[in-house]
Design a protein that fits this description.
Structural class: alpha+beta
Distance between the termini: 134 Å
Low-confidence stretches: 1-40, 247-270
Number of strands: 19
Helix content: 25-40%
Oligomer: single chain
Strand content: 25-35%
Shape: elongated
Mean pLDDT: 77
Radius of gyration: 39 Å
Largest sheet: 6 strands, mixed
Length: 303
């Protein structure tokens, strides 16, 4: 009696064991589709709309932005092309130069190479590389420039007392508009509270700043410095003088010396030694007197 029952139970267990392979083909097909879908997954690709040429100022951080779509489990590396040195893999740095680092936010397509305190030697080509087979890469170019301020009036400016001091400063070659542009007189920031009539207009878009000091007096003389946040500074020495206009304040030596040389040559050509000697002595005397007078005037005006 028990033998037929045993056979029945054995036959049922064999059917159950083979069910996953023979009785549910749709389930097997679904699994294969999943594998096939994984094999044929869209490959990683670069966002070709990404900016690929960057400029940074010396001493400022530089950033190169690489965007990779459909990265999946692949890794992104940054390579310096001039020596094929691997700088970063993923978010890990593989350079002894700690200025290089990879920045990435989870879930983002962007992998950024940061070069802190960029130097001119950092200029050149860099490559963003993805570990596909074969590897794919996208090249970038970095230019590190010296950004320096320039005051348009030149290194020295003469202003007549009672007129305005008007200084214009431009941050040349600044890759980005400066966050601020400060004006200094000597070692101190130009103070608006201590003196009225001072104004500063800064246009970040054009990287330009203008300093206006109305009704200047000799007290306003001094060394003025324009200092943008991301550029080397520039200075100008301002002289506020009383009396004649700045255009007429050229040293008399600039007027006398050419005439002196001309007369000496003329006398020499005609072999008039007496005229030569007299002319030379007179002009030298006038020149020395004029220099002495200029020094005295300068001392008096500076008091």
């Amino acid at each position: 009696m028990w033998f037929p029952v045993l056979l029945y139970l054995l036959s049922k267990s064999e059917l159950s064991a083979g069910g996953s392979d023979t009785t549910d083909p749709d389930a097997i097909f679904a699994v294969n589709n999943g594998t096939a879908a994984t094999d044929t997954m869209v490959q990683p690709q670069f966002d070709n709309a990404t900016k690929r040429e960057y400029t940074a100022a010396v001493g400022q951080p530089a950033y190169l932005h690489c965007r990779v779509k459909n990265l999946s489990d692949r890794s992104v590396s940054w390579i310096r092309k001039r020596d094929l040195h691997i700088l970063t893999v993923g978010v890990h740095t593989y350079s002894s130069d700690a200025r290089f680092a990879a920045l990435h936010t989870d879930g983002s397509d962007e992998w950024t190479l940061r070069v802190a305190h960029a130097q001119p030697r950092d200029s050149g080509a860099y490559e963003c590389q993805v570990s596909t087979e074969p590897k794919i890469s996208l090249s970038f170019w970095l230019s590190v420039v010296v950004s320096k301020a320039e005051i348009l009036s030149g290194p020295e400016l003469f202003v007549r007392a009672g007129s305005d001091i008007n200084l214009t400063c431009i941050a040349r070659h600044a890759p980005d508009p400066p966050s601020f542009i400060y004006w200094y007189r000597g070692a101190n920031v130009v103070n608006y509270a201590q003196r009225g009539g001072i104004s500063v207009e800064t246009e970040q878009r054009t990287r330009t700043s203008r300093l206006l000091i109305a009704r200047a007096s000799p007290r306003d003389s001094g060394n003025y410095t324009c200092a943008p946040s991301s550029s080397d500074s520039a200075s100008v020495v301002v002289h506020v003088v009383s009396g004649e206009r700045p255009a007429a304040m050229q040293s008399s030596s600039q007027r006398i010396i050419p005439a002196h040389v001309t007369l000496i040559l003329f006398s020499y050509i005609f072999n008039k030694q007496f005229v030569f000697d007299v002319t030379q002595n007179i002009l030298i005397s006038v020149y020395l007197i004029d220099c002495l007078a200029s020094k005295i005037i300068h001392i008096l005006e500076s008091r």
